[in-house]
Automatic annotation (TrEMBL):
Signal peptide start-end: none
Organism: Anaerocolumna chitinilytica
SUPFAM superfamilies: Phosphotyrosine protein phosphatases I
Domain of life, per lineage: Bacteria
Protein name: Low molecular weight phosphatase family protein
Entries under InterPro entries matching the protein: Ptyr_pPase (IPR023485), Ptyr_pPase_sf (IPR036196)
Pfam (any one): LMWPc
Length: 136
């Protein structure tokens, strides 16, 4: 499928949830949409718990291919998914937008990280189906 829609996963720091979503988007739905992540601020490195747990669960090394990016660093996108920023979520023009309302697991237990990662996995599968059916 040429011309795959571009999906941006957005949160404030682009170090944890949006990075996990970008990685799982590529891993689970790379043939259906292109995944990007970004934030209004960046962190010097991706959340190390997220990196470690994604390696453990999926064998994905996010630090190999991903880094913390600003909104200006990604191309124009078709779909914007906000992770659940309690502050004002950054605005990007797009044709479809949704908020996944995920808790930020930063600084919490491994169980909390796994819960958020599973939630993101589930949401990506739904998004993939919706895109395949031409819903957005």
């Amino acid at each position: 499928m040429d011309n795959k829609p571009k999906v941006a996963f957005i949160c404030v720091h682009n170090s944890c949830r949006s990075q996990i979503a970008e990685a799982l988007g590529k891993y689970l739905a790379g043939e259906v949409f292109e995944s990007y992540s970004a934030g209004t601020e960046t962190k010097p490195q991706i959340n190390q718990d997220a990196v470690r747990i994604m390696k453990k669960l999926y064998g994905i090394d996010m630090e190999k291919t991903q880094y913390s990016k600003l909104l200006a660093d990604i191309p124009e996108v078709d779909i914007v998914i906000t992770m659940g920023c309690n502050v004002q979520c950054p605005f990007l023009p797009c044709r479809h937008r949704e908020d996944w309302g995920l808790e930020d697991p930063t600084g919490k237990s491994e169980e909390e990280f796994v819960k958020v990662i599973e939630e993101i996995n589930k949401n990506i599968q739904v998004l993939k189906e919706h895109i395949k059916k031409g819903k957005y």
